[in-house]
Amino acid sequence: xxxxxxxxxxxxxxxxxxxxxxxxDHGYTVVAYNRTVSKVDEFLNDAxxxxxxxxxxxxxxxxxxxxxxxxxxxxxxxxxxxxDFIELVLPRLEPGDLIIDGGNSHxxxxxxxxxxxxxxxxxxxxxxxxxGEEGARFGPSMMPGGSVxxxxxxxxxxxxxxxxxxxxxPCCDWMGEDGAGHYVKMVHNxxxxxxxxxxxxxxxxxxxxxxxxxxxxxxxxTEWNQGELDSYLIEITRDILGYKDENGEYTVxxxxxxxxxxxxGKWTSVSSLDLGMPLTLIGEAVYARCLSALKDxxxxxxxxxxxxKFQFQGDKAVFVEDIRQALLASKIVSYAQxxxxxxxxxxxxxxxxxxxxxxxxxxxxxxxxxxFLGKIKAAFAANPDLRNLLLDDYFHGVIDRCxxxxxxxxxxxxxxxxxxxAFTTALAxxxxxxxxxxxxNLLQAQRDYFGAHTYERVDRPRGKxxxxxxxxxxxxxxxxxxxx
Length: 484
What we know:
By secondary structure, the chain is α/β, with parallel strands linked by helices. About 50% of the residues lie in helices and about 5% in strands. Strand 1 (about 5-10), helix 1 (about 15-25) and strand 2 form a beta-alpha-beta unit.
């Protein structure tokens, strides 16, 4: 069997097929394999007809067609299926061969698989792939991490098929060791949850607070997409608001208001809790989806629970601009929180993350792609040690400019009874982060009162702990410290 193929790809669902076609377009010979082998022939006789794609009908045949060191990419459902395919492929490989997981795997699994494959002399890459089916076909954003020695083996292919920034930079770079690539993709997805929720809240404010029509909101989003909010998600929201079905009726109005989720937003929120980072906006975005799923309960509650009647008084055009500025300011907070989490994860897992490079990788091809990300890259280029995006001159300048509109938008939403959890928590985080003093002194006193958990003092060095016998009955023995 002649070893002529550059890479193999297992999993012929939409993403897998489109990645194969993308690689073929860039001159790479790809072996296609699927557990249900009939899909291989269907693919070769349909989308891949007339290309250089090679079909394999067994693992042995697939491996035998590959040049050494062999590169095998898995585009299968995250979880057990990835482990199953690794075990199927492993006996046919040699030291130095490479397995790539391109699915939405949870980063602890990628850490584990990297160690496992390296213990057997193999290499492993876990790469986030963002951009959906269109991105996979014509240029995704890719976030690879894993065995450091594997990057030179896949760099040329990955950077050939990925999206490009307006300046021509490839939206693919090495993220770091073991699970770094899938962690960065997880945070990308968490920020995606936040962006989508913020846009939905802006939509509901315009629709219910101002009584705007879909056509009017379509025009607003069209204008927004030409300015600071220029992004893929604003673009598709504009298109959705303008889309009519065969009866000339707006499709968006016929969609049931219960949101689904695949878990990456939850993973991001859980990781933020594990690392003690306040990703409040992404957490609220996840909970907003959970609340939306309680459709029957909400319908029943709407017949019992009411709010004050509201009628907007003022200039609607001015308030639409307030909403735009609130959306921009909240978006900045969401990204600031996301990069806070990345920085803390880098310390926890000993990854050497390049934050400017991450912003560049997200600049095109992925779901959160936007002009806004160019500003984030510039911020980290100017100061690689930047602790928080809110401290960058550009971003805190935007926040200062938007702050009055941001507060007015949230106050109006509260008065109108329109839920805006992501807008609200973004502002609460901003106000908390800018506060020199928070009421945690009282909280620590409460903890010490009922549990003798001790506290630090403002007039003593940090790290020295004190306990007060608040009632005169509790004694002077304090509790040990622990992290729950």
